[in-house]
Design a protein that fits this description.
Elements (H helix, E strand, L loop, with lengths): L2 H17 L3 E4 L6 E4 L4 E6 L3 H9 L3 E4 L2 E4 L1 E5 L11 E3 L1 H17 L34 E4 L6 H8 L4 E16 L2 E4 L2 E4 L2 E8 L5 E2 L7 E4 L5 E2 L6 H16 L1 E9 L2 E9 L6 E17 L2 E6 L18
Parallel strand pairs: 3-6, 6-7, 9-15
Antiparallel strand pairs: 1-2, 2-3, 4-5, 8-14, 9-12, 9-18, 10-11, 12-13, 16-17, 18-19
Length: 320
C-alpha cells in the first residue's frame, strides 16, 4: 500500500469511526489512528506489509484513563489477501466499502453509526503478545521504578530472536531529560531570543540517544527477577553534556552593517545564552530488554517495542 493510498484510507476510516462517536486522532508510524469511545478504544493500521501486520497482530495496546486500564481493540485495513491474522479485526475492500457507505448514510440522516466490530475468537491464544499481566497480591514484585512496560512476552522474544536458550529480563538505565531555556539580548536594535524547550533520553551505558514518550512510562513495580543494570554515566556528566549541546544549538552569529564616514563596516558577534538561564531536569528510567543466551550466541530484544538490539547491551550498543 503506497503512502497516497494509505492516507486516503486513513481519512475514510477516520470518518467512519467519527460517525460512530469515537474521538479519533492520527498517531505516528507504524499505526495510523487511535479512537476512544465511551466504553472502548481502538488502534488502527492500514497496511499490506506482512511483517508490519504480524507485529500489529501480536502486540497488545493499552490505554490508561485515570485509574482504568483498557486493552485496545485492533482494526486492520488491508488489501493483501495473503496475510493471516489471529487477534485483530480485519477489513478488506468489501468491509471497507460497506462501512464507508453506512457511515455516509448515518451522516446524511444525522444519526450515530452503530459500528459492530468484535475481536475475533482465537484458536491459538498462546500466540498473543501482551503486556505483563498485573501481579496478584502476595506474589513477589520487583522494585518500583519508572520504566517502559513489557509488551513482548518472553516466548515471543525468543521467536523474534530465532534463538533458543536461557532468557532473562534486563532493565537498561536511561537518563530522561527536559530542558527549558529563556532570555534574550538586544544588539544594535536587533533582538535575539534564547527561548527554547525540549526533551529526550540518553542511554546511561553508552551515551547514545533514544526517543521515549513520557506517556509510555509506568511508575510501578518492575517485572520480578529482572536484572537492574547500573548506570555508567553519572548525573553531573550527563547534565553538563546536555547544557553544552543546548548552548551550542542556541548560539547565534549575528552580522551587522554600519557606516562610519565614507566607509562601510561589517561586524560579526557570537551570542550565547546565559548558562544560568537554562534549566535542566533529569530522571532515571529503565527500558526492559529480553536477553536470550543460546550457546555462544547472545541476542537481546527490546521488551517494549520488540526490536532486536544490534549487539548485546554489555558491548555498549544503542537500541535500534
Amino acid at each position: 500500500m503506497d503512502s497516497a493510498t494509505r492516507e486516503k484510507a486513513r481519512n475514510v476510516l477516520k470518518r467512519i469511526l467519527a460517525a460512530a462517536s469515537y474521538d479519533v486522532e492520527e498517531v505516528g508510524d507504524p499505526l495510523d489512528l487511535s479512537a476512544v469511545g465511551s466504553e472502548d478504544a481502538l488502534v488502527v493500521l492500514c497496511s499490506d506489509d506482512p511483517e508490519t501486520i504480524e507485529s500489529f497482530d501480536f502486540m497488545t495496546y493499552r490505554l490508561r484513563i485515570g485509574e482504568e486500564d483498557w486493552v485496545c481493540r485492533k482494526l486492520l485495513f488491508t488489501m493483501n489477501p495473503e496475510v493471516l491474522t489471529e487477534d485483530c479485526i480485519r477489513w478488506g475492500p468489501d468491509e471497507f466499502v460497506q462501512q464507508a457507505g453506512r457511515a455516509a448514510l448515518a451522516e446524511v440522516l444525522g444519526q450515530r453509526l452503530l459500528l459492530d466490530i468484535q475481536r475475533p475468537e482465537l484458536d491459538l491464544p498462546e500466540r498473543r503478545v501482551e503486556a505483563a499481566p498485573p501481579m496478584e497480591e502476595g506474589l513477589e514484585r520487583g522494585p518500583e521504578l519508572p520504566h517502559l512496560p513489557v509488551r513482548v512476552t518472553e516466548k515471543r522474544a525468543c521467536e523474534i530472536a530465532g534463538v533458543k536458550g536461557t532468557v532473562k529480563c534486563r532493565l537498561i538505565p536511561y537518563w530522561r531529560y527536559t530542558y527549558v531555556s529563556s532570555g534574550e539580548r538586544e544588539v544594535k536594535g536587533r533582538l535575539v531570543s534564547f527561548d527554547s524547550e525540549g526533551s529526550g533520553a540518553i542511554n546511561a551505558i553508552n551515551g547514545l540517544k533514544m526517543e521515549i514518550n513520557l506517556d509510555d512510562i509506568e511508575r510501578d513495580s518492575t517485572p520480578p527477577d529482572s536484572e537492574i543494570v547500573p548506570p555508567r554515566l553519572m548525573r553531573e556528566d550527563v547534565e553538563e553534556e546536555i547544557l553544552r549541546e543546548v548552548t551550542e544549538m542556541l548560539t547565534q552569529r549575528i552580522r551587522f552593517r554600519y557606516e562610519k564616514g565614507d566607509t562601510i563596516f561589517y561586524e560579526e558577534k557570537t551570542l550565547k545564552p546565559d548558562r544560568n538561564s537554562i534549566r535542566i531536569e533529569l530522571e532515571t528510567i529503565y527500558v526492559p530488554v529480553w536477553q536470550i543466551r543460546g550457546g555462544s550466541k547472545i541476542v537481546e530484544v527490546n521488551a517494549f517495542s520488540g526490536e532486536i538490539l544490534s549487539t548485546p547491551m554489555d558491548e555498549g550498543v544503542e537500541l535500534l
